[in-house]
Amino acid sequence: MTISYTDRNGLLNFRLKQLCKRRLEYALSRFQNRIRSIDLCVSDLNGPRGGIDKACRVRIVHEKGSVIVNQKSEDLAVCISRVAEKAARALSRSLGRSLKFRRERLNIPLDNEME
User: Which InterPro entries did the record assign (predicted)?
Assistant: First the structure.
């Protein structure tokens, strides 16, 4: 899995990048052979004013399409953890939908109807 980072406000230091990598790899490890790329974008919406203003966006490109998940939080580490969990659930749903197939009823005559 290749993870690319976009940091719009200089929020990601070495420890936070390690946290991102560890959380995303753990959450998405069962899908690793289906994932083509992961893009993580981190931004601070309000600047230094504080509040619930850290935003994370994850875009996962997989074999059947893509999934985009957003999360906002006051703490960036919490935001990263939550977006990884949400991304795993969303990817599971997306791949599950693609595996469903349409069942059609076969019109095979019964033995007693053949006579």
Answer: RHF-like, RHF/RaiA
Which residues, in sequence order, are CB contacts of 17 under 8 Å at separation 6+? 5
- pTM, whole model, 2 decimals? 0.77
Q: Is the pLDDT of residue 75 over 60?
A: yes
Q: What is the DSSP string of 38-73?
A: EEEEEEESSGGG-SS-EEEEEEEEETTEEEEEEEEE
Range of the domain at 30: 3-101
Distance from C-alpha of 12 to C-alpha of 86, rounded to nearest angstrom: 20
Asked if residue 112 is part of any domain, the answer here is: no
Q: Is residue 109 domain-resident? A: no
pLDDT in tens, 42-68: 998 887 776 778 999 999 999 888 999
Task: Give me the CATH number covering residue 94.
Answer: 3.30.160.100
Residue 46: inside a domain: yes
